[in-house]
Design brief:
This protein is of the alpha/beta class and 258 residues long. It is built from 9 helices and 6 strands. The chain has a 6-stranded mixed β-sheet, with helices on one face.
Length: 258
């Protein structure tokens, strides 16, 4: 099969998924509209574009963590999403709780999770992202948020479908993808093992995070035997790991596994 035929097949696939997903969004549209979980990543950009194309009622919400890359903040602002700010910044939380890790992810519950009682939350979750997400159902109840349900209309989209749709429909995505970033989240997020790279890319924000960590260590004398060593492990993404695969943070107070 020629490369040209492969490209045609790819386009036919995402165009078919586009039609199906728009119909899904229309079919399950709640009377009060969707709450669209908008991270600013490529999947949520595709979801936002499809939701607009479907002509359904929705509000896109972005949970600002205060440690988001400036490029992501700029992109989110341009999207028109509602930016929900936390009660306390990441730096204040680190001063109180210490560093987050792959298995001790207090940052998710503090900064990214929010219950939406009796609402339908549409997400960009896809089965192709991980084995755990492959077990998700397209519509499922949340473990928190009374009467809240999740709707994953992109569940059967592959990575190639997402990028094909972005290219074919001219969807604007965060500029960090053009720099080679595969995953876009908080700076020095321990899940991505990109802390060392992020610290070089955004040195001022990493320095502020390090300073917050040192405040925590001063407040708890004797608790941390090697603060700088632990900081290095945090940047390397090795803090708290047990050898298993990293788990993604749940969305909007959903405590089920990724």
């Amino acid at each position: 099969m020629s490369a040209q035929t492969d490209m045609l097949d790819d386009r036919q696939r995402w165009e078919r998924l586009e039609t199906i997903t728009i119909e899904r969004l229309r079919l399950f549209e709640p009377e009060d509209g969707y709450v669209l979980a908008y991270s600013g990543g490529k999947d949520s950009d595709v979801l936002l574009a499809l939701t607009k194309a479907a002509g359904v009622k929705f509000e896109a919400h972005h949970h600002h963590t205060t440690l988001d890359p400036p490029e992501l903040v700029k992109h989110v602002r341009s999207s028109g999403a509602i930016v929900d700010r936390p009660k306390r910044s990441m730096l204040k939380l680190v001063q109180k709780k210490g560093l987050s890790s792959a298995i001790r992810r207090w940052c998710c519950s503090e900064l990214k999770e929010r219950p939406w009682p009796y609402r339908v939350v549409a997400t960009g979750v896809r089965a192709a992202e991980s084995a755990r997400r492959a077990q998700r159902q397209m519509i499922e109840p949340a473990n928190a948020g009374k009467g809240q349900r999740f709707f994953h209309p992109l569940l059967d989209w592959a990575d190639a479908d997402i990028w094909g749709y972005i290219a074919g429909r001219g969807v604007d995505v965060c500029s960090l993808y053009a720099e080679g970033h595969k995953r876009i989240g908080c700076i020095c997020c321990p899940l991505g093992r990109s802390g060392t790279r992020d610290a070089k890319r955004w040195p001022k924000m990493a320095a502020n995070l390090h300073a917050a960590w040192m405040v925590y260590c001063v407040k708890h004398p004797g608790r941390i035997q090697d603060p700088e060593g632990m900081w290095g492990r945090f940047l390397a993404g090795d803090l708290g790991r047990t050898g298993g695969p990293p788990q993604g943070c749940p969305l909007f107070a959903d405590e089920r596994p990724e």
